[in-house]
Write a structure and sequence with these properties.
The structure holds two protein chains of two kinds.
Chain A: H1 7-15
Chain B: H1 4-19, H2 24-29, H3 37-60, H4 70-94, H5 101-110, H6 116-132, H7 136-147, H8 158-179, H9 186-213
Helix pairs in contact in B: 1-7, 3-4, 4-6, 4-7, 4-9, 6-9, 7-8
The chains are: A mainly alpha, B mainly alpha.
């Protein structure tokens, strides 16, 4: 789950536009 | 008065800010049945993750942001995420909520395992934001200004960030003069909240550190 990701991972993923996954 | 470009910038930021919110399903979870301390903690963590995703989507829409160096974009978001979240939650807290909801949210936060030492300043901040009766435009601009702080760690091209932030500050300053002609201090008060946010950010880092230790 996303809650296991660090802040930077969440930001990088969201910046790449993979939020909807 | 706002120039045409500034008006366009403001409308654009406002639209992005309104469009990117925490999904209602997620927000609703907070108001459902009581959870244990651990479940509360997990729920707030899930909220925070969603909050960061929403924040990134908003930030991508700040004119000029995507033209910044990619690693600088990450450094800006990393450095400001916590402050932007406090700002957004302050807005949620000060908005008029159905009877009993504010109390329930407060209760959930109090029962998430955070110490009073961190909770008290947070609620004080929420109150200080509430006292300003900010307009949606002001929330959107202040959030953008928080994100575009050139002094965050690891920023390589500070000048480029500064230019973007200055443009926002100029719009906010003019907007405050236009909308609050009776309150010449309004703009300064809004900027004062940025200092408070830095303090909360500092508390938050301390709190994370103490969690890691335990």
């Amino acid at each position: 789950p996303a809650s296991n990701l660090g802040l930077e991972d969440i930001i990088r993923k969201a910046l790449m536009g993979t939020v909807e996954e | 008065e706002l120039s045409q470009d500034q008006q366009a910038l403001l409308s654009y930021i406002l639209e992005a800010y309104n469009k990117h919110r925490i999904p209602p399903d997620m927000a609703k979870k907070l108001l459902q049945e009581q959870f244990s301390t651990e479940e509360n903690f997990l729920l707030l963590t899930e909220m925070a993750t969603s909050h960061v995703q929403v924040l990134v989507e908003f930030t991508k829409n700040i004119p000029g942001f995507q033209s910044l160096d990619h690693e600088d974009q990450i450094a800006l978001l990393k450095g400001s995420a916590v402050e932007a979240m406090f700002l957004r939650s302050a807005q949620a807290f000060t908005r008029k909520m159905p009877h009993g909801h504010t109390e329930m949210l407060e209760e959930r936060i109090r029962k998430s395992g955070m110490s009073e030492k961190f909770i008290v300043p947070m609620f004080n901040f929420y109150k200080s934001i509430g006292g300003l009766q900010m307009m949606q435009e002001e929330h959107a601009l202040l959030t953008a200004i928080t994100i575009l702080s050139p002094d965050r760690p690891y920023i390589k091209d500070q000048k480029a960030v500064e230019l973007l932030q200055e443009a926002m500050l100029e719009v906010l300053s003019k907007f405050c003069k236009l909308k609050h002609p009776q309150e010449p201090q309004h703009f300064a008060r809004l900027l004062g909240r940025l200092t408070e946010l830095r303090t909360l950010h500092h508390h938050h880092a301390e709190m994370l550190e103490s969690w890691r230790m335990s």
